[in-house]
Amino acid sequence: MIESIPAELRKNSVVLAVDVGNTHTVIGVFRGEEVAESWRVTTHAEATSDEALMRIGELLSRSEIPARSITHAALSSVVPGLDRVWAKALSKLLGFAPQIVSSENCLGIPLRYDSAKTLGADRICNVLALLDMGYECAAALDLGTATTIDILKDGGFHGGVILPGMTASLHALTTSAAMLSPVTLTWTEKVVSTNTADAMRAGILHGFLGQLDWLMNSIREELGVGEIPVVATGGWSESLGGKSHWFDLYEPHLTVKGIRLVALAAKD
What we know:
Layout: H1 7-12, E1 14-20, E2 24-31, E3 34-42, H2 49-61, E4 72-77, H3 82-94, E5 99-100, H4 121-132, E6 138-143, E7 146-153, E8 156-164, H5 166-176, H6 196-223, E9 230-233, H7 237-241, E10 249-250, H8 254-265
Parallel strand pairs: 1-4, 4-5, 6-9, 9-10
Antiparallel strand pairs: 1-2, 2-3, 6-7, 7-8
Helix pairs in contact: 2-3, 4-8
């Protein structure tokens, strides 16, 4: 657990955390340490602050959490411009400005990255969450539009890997090959398929497991560790969890948990 955040603050705060991703925006509200509410909505890159305000306001109005009870807020965004849109919306809703996660306000953890300003805020938050969960060396596997594997080591962000997510891989395949049409990504019984749709499914889904296996073995070798815990999050994690021996834990709220920490660590 990150000791710089007082236990009393953790216990008595109500935190709104917003994770703006390329495809979905995840919103979590924490009462103390617990996730009281969470929502996943479609990200609209052209949304205005008024539209964001309407969306978050409506979600809160349907819950048992009034906006006036929220004591802290922060957001992470990987969509250029939407950080400002959501910050303005949250400021209107809450009466105070949220923290926007960046390399400059991530609790002072070491960032082993050539240019820290180019490091995705969501990746920072995933590693912060691992650190707060008590891990000393672990990997965050985030399966979204992009798949990221990020490493916690020596108390900070140690580096990572980015590769196409499975939906992005399917989109690239079907837009680049005229004879291939989009399919629903469901598991096939066999890798060797006798129809084009299943051949695509097998290639993307089983192929991803092959990539993951090679990458995790390489990561362990480079880090010089025999084992490394892997905490999975993101839209595809639940469906892949039973297929891979690399998943030690599925934590759907990993990123918003890291965002919460940035909110709590903010100076008044």
